Amino acid sequence: MQEIGFVVFPEFQVMGFTAITAFEVANLIAGDPFYEVTLLSEHGGPVRSSAGFNVETEAFGARSFDTLFIGAGHELHPASPKLTGFIRRAMTESQRIAAPCIGAFSLAEAGLLDGRRVSTHWQFAAELQARFPKLKVDQDRIYIVDGPIWTSAGMTATIDLALAMIEHDLGVEVAR
């Protein structure tokens, strides 16, 4: 069983969490539940999406996950000290950490992207590179895997990122 944690923030972009459906369908195709998804936030409880509905979350930091997704919204917000600590701990406890779109900024703030190639939304690529010169932004890639760090270009690219994970975990037939 792969436990996946999705960190959400107030006004999180719903499109970035379409990967959850890819993992759901992979479970159906595989015939057994391989993925278990938990939504996380700093304090736990309901978190409002950019679409106006709430999702119920568990407070992050209480347990570790095999895969950790750092969500994104419409705007950049500095990572809280608690989130930065959680991300750093996940680097040693998780098999992989994923950052769709501007989620890469949170990983960079935690110091996890130094010396790595990353992808992010083209509108934020120059800013990410300027703020964190030790990483290399490749804005022409839909997703990039650099060791345990998986990043993707934009919200819709999160689906491609999830399918790549499914192919890695369960094979190409399940990912199709």
Automatic annotation (TrEMBL):
Originating species? Chiloscyllium punctatum (Brownbanded bambooshark)
Instruction: Spell out the protein name for this chain.
Output: DJ-1/PfpI domain-containing protein
**Gene3D superfamilies cross-referenced by the UniProt entry:** 3.40.50.880
Q: Which InterPro entries does the UniProt record give?
A: Class_I_gatase-like (IPR029062), DJ-1/PfpI (IPR002818), INH-QAR (IPR052158)
Taxonomy, superkingdom: Eukaryota
Task: Report the residue ranges that make up the DJ-1/PfpI domain in this protein.
Answer: 35-167
Q: Which Pfam families match?
A: DJ-1_PfpI
